[in-house]
Amino acid sequence: MGIDVVDVARFKASLERTPKLRERLFTEEERKLPVLSLAARFAAKEALAKALGAPRGLRWTDAEIRRESSGRPALHVKGTIAEFAAPLGITSWHVSLSHDGGIATAVVIAEAS
């Protein structure tokens, strides 16, 4: 399990200061979202890394938080993240996103079979 919080104003300033950061952190689909949603997704990616034990070499774009038809967030992984998760037996992911009062939060649970 991993959890993370992001100060939305500080995150927005980082994106404005370093334009290429969006490309490093987010997939093409995620980049279309507003800053509040990006902050929550970044928190989820940080929480995901913590759930895996914070290994080096993860590519942020190998994780994508999508919205299911129900509106519920769903975490999809590939590449480096899938490679780190496989030896741990992780077969499914659970993610919860929230934002309020200028803070975005996320919890990620990695479930092994």
TrEMBL record:
Transmembrane segments: none annotated. Its cofactor is Mg(2+). It is found in: Cytoplasm. Keywords: Cytoplasm, Fatty acid biosynthesis, Fatty acid metabolism, Lipid biosynthesis, Lipid metabolism, Magnesium, Metal-binding, Transferase. It is an enzyme of class 2 (transferase). Transfers the 4'-phosphopantetheine moiety from coenzyme A to a Ser of acyl-carrier-protein. HAMAP family: AcpS. Belongs to the P-Pant transferase superfamily. AcpS family. This is Holo-[acyl-carrier-protein] synthase. It comes from Actinocorallia aurantiaca.
